[in-house]
Amino acid sequence: MSKPIVATTSLAGCFGCHMSVLDIDDRILELIELVEFNKSPINDIKKFTKKCDIGLIEGGCANSENVHVLKDFREHCKILISLGECAIMGGLPAMRNGIPVRECLEEAYLNGLTVAGNTGKIIPNDPELPMLLDKVYPCHEVVKIDYFLPGCPPRADLIWDALVALITGDEMKLPYEVIKFD
Amino acid sequence: MNKVVKIDIDGLECIANSDQYIIEAARENGIYIPTLCNYPGVKPKGGCRICTVRVNGKQMTACTTPVSDGMRIENNTEELINLRKSIVELLLVEGNHFCPSCEKSGNCELQALAYRFGIMAPRFPYLFPVRKVDASHPKIIKDQNRCILCKRCIRAITDEKGRSVFAYRRRSSRVEVVVDSKLGKQLTDELAQKAMDVCPVGSILVKEKGFITPIGERKYDKNPIGSDIENITITKR
Ligand code: SF4
Ligand code: SF4
């Protein structure tokens, strides 16, 4: 039997969830025996080369590029997992949700205390750049998500148990200590 | 007149006093009925509805219903657990609960109930309401993003004349709980701390006291909310 194929991505996230994937320590050796990786920042494969079984999504949708990547993942993966608070509810990036986009951009490029050298007072708007969305959206409000693994980041044990359960078809053990929202 | 009565909770015979509410009687019998707005020693309100049980088949709030002899109470049924879970989920999407950056995380009762019910993500869409943080008070911060309007602070934090230091402002969907501008001025350090402790969520914070307990040692890091009640040795039953 061929190995299940896993893809991962970080949308509007900080890569902390990916760090937590690596935090499974030496079990990573077991993991590469169990699965094959496709598109992922871990192996730097940038485009899907085949259909995948499991897609791990870190981060919510803050711009048009995030939405595009998320839809691409939905198309290529049988099972999608929202990994971490940002994917589940927008997380810290969503703290801008109560502030108008223009105000956010002005703070970042014009008025912020650490802004330096923007003498032309330019807010970048090149068509090549992804458009910021009005709000940061949880992934499951953009595409269908099959499973959720909370945490900021999700504990390595939770990620490991979830992956093993999915691959082996066994029921997942969920000890109290591993489900955390922080 | 206060007399001893027998009640039945999920098939378990319990002894209670006739002047007790169901939630208190259950607690003394080592049975946890989840709640957010109820607080021991504070007048019950029946606001959050999380303690809803079935009393002789009818849904009632356990925090406001006094026990009576022969009562049959259903508590841990699938139906009631699912109902309680929905309320927790609704509260999570109704406000702005960014647990990773919240001072109360790990000590928060709303979060702890979500853990207890195994909520991985709420089933409802997030509202992301626009709410304010009021840090103008010298001792406390009032974060409206996290207030669940349980009124615990209004009921529990009073001055020596019994006047509430916290109060409702506005009505309906715009209602918020604020510090009374006059009475708030006399808030002592002790009362400020009590207010933070009484608040089930991170809506009342004592300044410079956030993140004081390290992760791993906070109230609900290792043990689910209610486990203290479930683990007491029952002498009464
Ligand atoms: S109040 Fe509780 S649920 Fe809300 S953000 Fe803070 S820890 Fe999370
Ligand atoms: S501030 Fe806290 S205690 Fe007061 S009503 Fe809001 S959630 Fe309840």
How are the strands of the largest sheet of chain A arranged?
2-1-3-5-7
Hetero groups: iron/sulfur cluster
Average of the residue pLDDT scores of chain B = 95
How many beta-strand runs of chain A? 7
Summarize the structure.
In chain A, the strands form 2 sheets. Chain A has a 5-stranded parallel sheet with strand order 2-1-3-5-7, sandwiched between helices. Chain A has a two-stranded antiparallel sheet with strand order 4-6. Helix content of chain A is 31%, strand content 19%. Chain A has helices at residues 16-22, 27-34, 64-76, 85-89, 101-111, 156-168, and strands spanning 5-10, 36-37, 52-58, 61-63, 77-83, 132-137, 147-149.
Annotate the secondary structure layout:
The complex is a heterodimer of chains A (182) and B (237).
Chain A: E1 5-10, H1 16-22, H2 27-34, E2 36-37, E3 52-58, E4 61-63, H3 64-76, E5 77-83, H4 85-89, H5 101-111, E6 132-137, E7 147-149, H6 156-168
Parallel strand pairs in A: 1-2, 1-3, 3-5, 5-7
Antiparallel strand pairs in A: 4-6
Chain B: E1 4-9, E2 12-17, H1 22-28, E3 52-55, E4 58-61, E5 72-74, H2 78-94, H3 109-116, E6 133-134, E7 140-143, H4 152-156, E8 166-169, E9 176-179, H5 189-198, E10 204-206, H6 227-230
Parallel strand pairs in B: 1-5
Antiparallel strand pairs in B: 1-2, 3-4, 3-5, 6-7, 7-10, 8-9
Can you walk through the features of this model?
The complex is a heterodimer of chains A (182) and B (237). Chain A has 182 residues and is an alpha/beta fold. Chain A has a single domain (5-96, 134-179), classed as NADH:ubiquinone oxidoreductase-like, 20kDa subunit (Rossmann fold, 3-Layer(aba) Sandwich), CATH 3.40.50. Chain A is 31% helix and 19% strand. Chain A has helices spanning 16-22, 27-34, 64-76, 85-89, 101-111, 156-168; strands spanning 5-10, 36-37, 52-58, 61-63, 77-83, 132-137, 147-149. Chain A has a five-stranded parallel β-sheet, sandwiched between helices. Chain A has a two-stranded antiparallel sheet with strand order 4-6. Chain A starts with a strand and ends in a 14-residue tail after the last helix. The model of chain A has no long low-confidence stretch (mean pLDDT 96). Chain B has 237 residues and is an alpha+beta fold. Chain B has two domains: 4-76, Roll (Ubiquitin-like (UB roll)); 84-208, Alpha-Beta Plaits, CATH 3.30.70.20. Helices cover 22% and strands 17% of the residues of chain B. In chain B, the strands form three sheets. In chain B, strands 2-1-5-3-4 form a five-stranded mixed β-sheet, sandwiched between helices. A three-stranded antiparallel β-sheet of chain B has the order 6-7-10. In chain B, a hairpin with a 2-residue loop joins strand 3 and strand 4. The two termini of chain B are 22 Å apart. The mean pLDDT of chain B is 95. The A-B interface holds A 82, 85, 88-92, 94-95, 97-98, 135, 138, 140-141, 147-150, 152, 174, 176-177, 179-182 and B 96-102, 105-106, 111, 114-115, 118, 120-122, 125-126, 128-131, 215, 221-224. Residues 147-153, 166, 177, 198-201, 203-204 of chain B line the site of one iron/sulfur cluster.
